[in-house]
From TrEMBL:
This is Peroxidase. Pfam families: peroxidase. GO terms for biological process: hydrogen peroxide catabolic process; response to oxidative stress. The lineage of its organism: Eukaryota, Viridiplantae, Streptophyta, Embryophyta, Tracheophyta. Ca(2+) 2 binds at residues 198, 249, 252, 257. The gene is LOC104593960. Belongs to the peroxidase family. Classical plant (class III) peroxidase subfamily. Belongs to the peroxidase family. Ascorbate peroxidase subfamily. GO terms for molecular function: heme binding; lactoperoxidase activity; metal ion binding; peroxidase activity. It catalyses: 2 a phenolic donor + H2O2 = 2 a phenolic radical donor + 2 H2O. Its cofactor is Ca(2+); heme b. It is found in: Secreted. The record marks 66 as: Transition state stabilizer. It comes from Nelumbo nucifera (Sacred lotus).
């Protein structure tokens, strides 16, 4: 009897621990242990495939991280971004922020295929995106965090939401902050999450206006270091070369660290949306300074803000579905 009672106490304590780490969202819970019984190897499988993909191409870490951002900012973290156009669905992949830009879908397909073999119809595409973002960050040398799980997949997409809600490189500081606030994120989240630009690339077309015509008066952006601007112009001409790629952080382009913030302090943020963090708001300027001086502080806040972003309006309980193929809704 005593053994039975102590076993029950252990079970109760474990349940309570899971509850403490869970996040109450729209009537449902997300918690890191969601697949511990239904698919115990889920996280291991995601990590292994992401590691192989990043080993093949270092840039893939940034690409997978970006997929999670662009998903969560449209209708919440529901894998709507992964849907191809079909029937009544117009894919978010066609939107201005995503067209010829977002990538990594084949890696998500490979993860989904492996998970369907391991535990069919169990792990959502939305959770795959959240886990792949975390694993990519860690592989690039960044912080780790426990990913709350239990999201379900949407049965639709929003092209207009994708066009309107995702912050653009040429948006004003206030517009970017407003877009973050619409997702329940604040200025601290904005600056910390912008730090993901410590890895990855941007196309010439996303910052050309800074080099030649920042305010529509034929003048460059003078908040951009002029020797750096001259280097950029050599491969980003006034016309042509739209798809030419440039490192977002030219100092440590594949290492997740706080050099992004140091670059901004030196007026060498690549995108307008990077540099305005320092030039257009005293509060964000102070955060840029703090993170540039303290890598650990940046890592800590980045992890917190990623969990917060991952909790934006997920589908839980009986809402949505668990897609068999991340590119299309299930047929019933």
């Amino acid at each position: 009897m005593a053994h039975c009672m102590s076993f029950l106490m252990v079970l109760l304590l474990l349940s309570f621990a899971s509850f403490c780490f869970s996040h109450k969202i729209n009537g449902g819970y997300l918690y890191p242990q969601f697949y511990d019984y239904s698919c115990p190897r889920a996280q291991e499988i995601v990590k292994s495939i992401v590691a192989k993909a990043v080993a093949r191409e270092a840039r893939m870490a940034a690409s997978l991280l970006r997929l999670h951002f662009h998903d969560c900012f449209v209708k919440g973290c529901d894998a709507s971004l992964l849907l191809d156009s079909s029937g009544s669905i117009t894919s978010e992949k066609r939107s201005n922020p995503n067209r010829n830009s977002v990538r990594g879908f084949e890696v998500i397909d490979e993860i989904k295929s492996a998970l369907e073999k391991e535990c069919p119809h169990t792990v959502s595409c939305a959770d795959i995106l959240a886990l792949a973002a975390r694993d990519s960050t860690v592989l690039a040398g960044g912080p780790s965090w426990e990913v709350p799980l239990g999201r379900r997949d949407s049965r639709g997409a929003s092209l207009s939401g994708s066009n309107n809600n995702i912050p653009a490189p040429n948006n004003t500081f206030q517009t970017i902050l407003t877009k973050f606030k619409l997702q329940g994120l604040n200025i601290v989240d904005l600056v910390a999450l912008s730090g993901s630009h410590t890895i990855g690339n941007a196309r010439c077309t996303s910052f050309r206006q800074r080099l030649y015509n920042q305010s529509g008066n034929g003048q460059p952006d003078y908040s951009l270091d002029q020797s750096y601007a001259m280097q950029l112009r050599s491969r980003c001409p006034r016309s042509g070369g739209d798809q030419n790629l440039f490192f977002l952080d030219f100092v440590t382009p594949t290492k997740f660290d706080n050099h992004y913030f140091k670059n901004i302090l030196a007026s060498k943020g690549l995108l307008n949306s990077d540099q305005v963090l320092f030039t257009k708001s005293k509060a964000s300027m102070e955060l840029v300074k703090k993170y540039s001086e303290n890598n650990e502080l940046f890592f800590e806040q980045f992890a917190k803000s990623m969990v917060k972003m991952g909790n934006v309006s997920p589908l839980t309980d009986s809402k949505g579905e668990i897609r068999k193929n991340c590119r299309r809704i299930n047929s019933y």
